[in-house]
């Protein structure tokens, strides 16, 4: 901890204190921060429970403020939870969302508080649409709002993280006391893709990231959700070509990533198209249009490794939403591309120095499998990361 115990959580949790220790106006090029809109609320004895952190009772200060991009008529809301001073361990945690949401609100933020970190999330400028940010991808004219696409893809999480780290150092007076801030990321599913978007682009942003079942290869991933609807139409063709359990290429590997037999599904259903007035399934021409922003599968993580970053990547083996094989393929791509000329065993050992993949037996999509309620799940990944980087 960097500031004296003479200041309590209640002392810090005021708009006056936070504004007096706010970021400089020119801290982030192209962004205008607004300290006049700071809100702060002290919360005590709150219960927290999740598959991503142990059950706990926590005290924290919930802070919000906004910023805008110069020249744009936008407003982005940031939320940071600050732990009680006695619990602060010089850590910052960024969190993401799920599905088409860019944040998961109170579901993820307690994880930071439990481990002595200031925890942050963002609405990405989508406001009330943040739970379905894709609704903001189109302008009134029907053309793409590329600014929103890129905010959802990686910019919003990046800006929230850079601002959040500086905010943490200021309110705890860390720079003046020459104290190191450890920065972390934790997320699963869409939040996992968001985590990879940061690791692949911004090498110095996080010391470590805990990333589960990431929804990368976005174009493939969303079409994969149509599997139940289209499998009957392709079964006859595949049957003529199959070897054991589906279409394979010449060396025996499967030509597509399907779900594992133990995955739990709901019944297939059609969707109503309000424009055409018809029921059915449609695939727009977005396969390649969003590759640079949403595909998120760049395998050369050399800058992140050289910066000292660490990654724990996990995926349930019975995931019903994102095939487990997609994570295996990602790890293999990183291993092969970053270690040319090394044997398989040597390349695995070298990769594991900074990036480790764990498959969870029976694990469902970012949760314990309902068919295996007492099955394993890595609930304390963040603690494992902390031990890896700090100890």
From TrEMBL:
Its EC number is 3.1.1.-. It holds the Pfam family Tannase. The keyword Disulfide bond applies. It is an enzyme of class 3 (hydrolase). InterPro entries: Tannase/feruloyl_esterase. GO terms for molecular function: carboxylic ester hydrolase activity. It comes from the Eukaryota. Keywords: Disulfide bond, Hydrolase, Serine esterase, Signal. Belongs to the tannase family. This is Carboxylic ester hydrolase.
């Amino acid at each position: 901890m960097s500031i004296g115990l003479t200041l309590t959580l209640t002392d810090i949790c005021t708009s006056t204190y936070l504004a007096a220790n706010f970021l400089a106006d020119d801290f982030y090029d192209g962004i205008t921060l607004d300290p006049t809109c700071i809100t702060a609320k002290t919360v005590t004895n709150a219960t927290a429970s999740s598959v991503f952190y142990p059950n706990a009772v926590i005290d924290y200060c919930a802070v919000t403020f906004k910023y805008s991009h110069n020249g744009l008529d936008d407003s982005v809301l940031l939320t940071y939870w600050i732990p009680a001073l006695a619990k602060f361990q010089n850590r910052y945690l960024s969190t993401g969302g799920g599905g088409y949401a860019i944040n998961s609100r109170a579901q993820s933020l307690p994880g930071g508080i439990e481990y002595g970190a200031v925890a942050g999330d963002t609405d990405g400028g989508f406001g009330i649409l943040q739970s379905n940010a894709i609704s903001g991808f189109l302008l009134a004219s029907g053309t793409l709002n590329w600014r929103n696409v890129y905010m959802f893809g990686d910019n919003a999480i990046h800006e929230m993280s850079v601002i959040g780290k500086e905010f943490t150092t200021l309110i705890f007076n860390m720079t003046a006391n020459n104290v190191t801030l450890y920065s972390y990321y934790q997320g699963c599913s869409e939040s996992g893709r968001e985590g990879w978007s940061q690791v692949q682009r911004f090498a110095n942003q996080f010391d470590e990231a805990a990333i589960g079942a990431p929804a990368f290869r976005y174009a493939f991933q969303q079409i994969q959700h149509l599997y139940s609807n289209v499998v009957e139409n392709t079964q006859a063709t595949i049957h003529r070509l199959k070897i054991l359990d589906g279409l394979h290429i010449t060396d025996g590997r499967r030509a597509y990533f399907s779900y594992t037999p133990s995955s739990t599904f709901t019944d297939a259903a059609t969707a109503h198209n309000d424009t055409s007035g018809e029921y059915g399934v449609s695939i727009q021409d977005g396969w390649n249009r969003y590759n640079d922003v949403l595909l998120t599968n760049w395998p050369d993580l050399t800058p992140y490794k050289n910066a000292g970053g660490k990654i724990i990547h996990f995926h349930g083996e019975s995931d019903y939403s994102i095939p487990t094989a997609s994570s295996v393929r990602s790890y293999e791509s990183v291993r092969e591309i970053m270690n040319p000329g090394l044997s398989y065993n040597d390349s695995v050992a070298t990769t594991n120095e900074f990036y480790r993949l764990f498959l969870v037996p029976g694990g469902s999509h970012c949760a314990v499998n309902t068919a295996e309620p007492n099955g394993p799940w890595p609930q304390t990944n963040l603690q494992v990361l902390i031990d890896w980087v700090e100890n």
